Every structure is written in C-alpha cells, then in structure tokens.
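re: ur msg from earlier - yeah i can do the heme C complex, just paste it... oh wait u already did. ok heres what im feeding in:
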Amino acid sequence: MKKFATIAGMVLLMWVMFTGCDSKRKPGKIYMPDMAYSRSYETYAEYDSSIITNDPSDKGGNKIYYNSQPVAGTIKRGELFPYTIPNDTNGYKLSATVMNPITEMTKAEMDETARLYNINCAICHGEKGLGNGPISTSGKIGGIANLTLQQYIDMADGTMFHSLTYGRNLMGSYASQLDRKQRWMIVKYIRSLQPKPTVEAAKAVAKTDSTAIAVKK
Ligand code: HEC
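and the outut:
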C-alpha cells in the first residue's frame, strides 16, 4: 500500500511538472500577475490591452498601467538641463539673463554647427546670416532677420535661444529638430557670422556707456 502511494505520488508530481507550464507565452492560471507580466520596460513586447492599460484612470484593479513614456523629467544622457522659462512676454525678457552654456567650440564642433545652420536656417537667413536666403529673396516670407545687424549683435544669447526654442512670429520652433546643445551651439555660430566690433567702436561705447564691457583686440 505504501509502495502504491509512492508511485501514485510520483506520477502526480510528474503530471504537475509536465502540465504546469507547457508554454511560457500562455501561462495557466495567473495568481501573481506581476510575475507573469513584467511591469518593467519590455522593448519589443506586444501588450495585451485586457491586462495592460495606458489610461491613467483605468489603472488599479487587475490592469497594469504602462504608457511606454519615460518618467517625467527624464533627461537623455549627455543632454543639457531643460529650459524652463515660459513662452510669454515676460519669459522673452527674462531669457536675456540665461547664459550660453557653450563657451568654446572646437573646429570640428564649429563645422558641425555650420552644417546644422545651413540645413535649418540658411534657407531664410542666408549662409552668412544676412537675411537673404532663397525663401527671403523669393519674397514668400517677409521680415526675415538680418542677423548681422546691430540689434542682433546686442541681442543676448539667451534671447536667441528662447526664440529658437519657441519660435518667433513667422519663424517656427526648432525644439524638435535641434536639441538644446545644438541650439546653443547655433547661437554661438551666429556670433561668428556677426561683424566683430572694431577697437574704435568699442572705445566709443566705453566712453558713453560705463557698463559696457571692454572689447579685447
Ligand atoms: C522660414 C524662415 C526662417 C527660418 C528657416 C529660420 N528663421 Fe530665424 N527668423 C525668421 C523671421 C521671419 C524672423 C523675424 C521674427 C520677428 O521678429 O518677427 C526670424 C528671427 C530670428 C532671430 C531673432 C529672434 C528674435 O528674438 O527677434 C534669430 C536669432 C533667428 N531667427 C535665428 C534663426 C536660426 C538659428 C534658425 C535655424 C535654426 C532660423 N532662424 C531659421 C525666419 C526664419
């Protein structure tokens, strides 16, 4: 009798072992859904809408909430911190106080920025920033800024960045085409297109404006 019980027990155990998990893809009865369906990011996994929801109001209960979006505030590796000044009149004024985090660029970075400028901006502003790109000369869009004028020499880096981020009147936003670092680098590149103040001009400014920063030769 004892022998029979042992054999029966072994047969039962084998049956459990072989039928319990015949397919990993289709588990039998799920008593711990978090183990069967990972809450973590599964790159190419297909999601079963009866189990996973991306509607925040639907979460809880049996459904697992997953929206495949990075957590709010996530910053890409190597990316600069987000620009938080809002797109309004006050924000535009405030932008002048933001310093350009790019202070120097190597020759290779300068060449890359020239490439980005020529792709994105030269069509309107012209290769040299004179506001004479093909769209400007065609007359399709008026009022394209000549970035070499005094008004843009005087414009703060932060304000240019602000306008590139949010757009300005007929110029659209470049936030989706150029990342933050690229936008700051382009601002720096615009500076290289602008005429350098002559020593005489700098002296004249220094005489009339005590706050002006002396320009080195
Ligand atoms: C579709 C044409 C067009 C393109 C492309 C374009 N701009 Fe402009 N941009 C304009 C116009 C028009 C203005 C004048 C906006 C105004 O003040 O009304 C302007 C203004 C500016 C200003 C001054 C912003 C201000 O606050 O007054 C800067 C700086 C500038 N552009 C840089 C760029 C850069 C850099 C790019 C490329 C990433 C670019 N633009 C692409 C049309 C364009």
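cool cool. The domain at 89-208 is CATH 1.10.760 (Cytochrome Bc1 Complex; Chain D, domain 2). ping me if u need the other ligands too
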